[in-house]
Amino acid sequence: xxxxxxxxxxxxxxxxxxxxxxxxxxxxxxxxxxxxxxxxxxxxxxxxxxxxxxxxxxxxxxxxxxxxxxxxxxxxxxxxxxxxxxxxxxxxxxxxxxxxxxxxxx
Length: 106
Fold this sequence. Notes:
By secondary structure, the protein is α+β, with helices and mostly antiparallel strands. The chain folds into two domains: 1-44, no CATH class; 47-106, no CATH class. The chain contains two helices and seven strands; from the N terminus they run βββββαββα. It has helices spanning 49-69, 94-105, and strands at 2-3, 6-13, 19-27, 30-35, 38-43, 73-78, 81-86. The protein has a three-stranded antiparallel beta sheet with strand order 1-4-5, with no helix packed on it. The protein has a two-stranded antiparallel sheet with strand order 2-3. The protein has a two-stranded antiparallel sheet with strand order 6-7.
């Protein structure tokens, strides 16, 4: 059996005690295989640019679906393309309509 590992720390303040919520992550660049003598680290190959793009696309897709399921984002169609927008946004305002394509592109 192989395992990977990561630790994430949520830091809420910057060095000037200002509100600055951000994450610090420590991610193993290997896979740990369990043996009778303890864990053995197996070095993994670096991902290619195309593999990283595919991984990022998959993460974005899954996060957007999760946010849509939770009602944070709603899917709308405009001009033949569908995208997700903020469920709390005022859908009738000119500003909201103007920002939708920018939100979709982001």
